[in-house]
Write a structure and sequence with these properties.
Layout: H1 9-50, E1 54-58, E2 66-71, E3 81-84, H2 86-94, E4 98-99, H3 105-108
Parallel strand pairs: 2-4
Antiparallel strand pairs: 1-2, 1-3
Length: about 110
């Protein structure tokens, strides 16, 4: 029966203690990796939930003139912005609101002249 293990009790107990220690370490690492993956998934969901598909950047002054249309995740968009729908973004571009040169919403919306 299991000839590759030692035959005396002290060495068998030592092996069992050693393996239990390693199983504990492995279980801790598994729990840590699962937590990291869950945090990354939650962060990705939060980013998706927060960013609208399209935004329009607003200017300063009376009436807050519309400045540029951006994709929702554009890094070049200013702080004054308003979310718009896909059709709203297309309508703004058709009405002459400038398209961002970084995220190029006109290309993605197929609004090139």
């Amino acid at each position: 029966m299991l000839d590759d293990l030692p035959s005396d009790l002290p060495r068998l107990e030592t092996l069992r203690t050693w393996h239990a220690m390693w199983l504990g370490r492995i279980d801790q690492k598994i729990a840590w990796v699962r937590e990291q993956e869950e945090q990354q998934a939650r962060a990705a969901q939060e980013r998706e939930r927060r960013a609208p598909d399209w935004i329009v950047e607003l200017g300063i002054g009376q009436g807050s003139p519309l400045i540029e249309v951006h994709r929702g995740d554009c890094h070049a968009a200013g702080k004054r912005r308003r979310p718009v729908t896909r059709n709203g973004a297309r309508r703004l571009l058709a009405d002459g609101v400038r398209a961002c040169t970084h995220c190029q919403p006109d290309v993605e919306l197929r609004m090139l002249e």
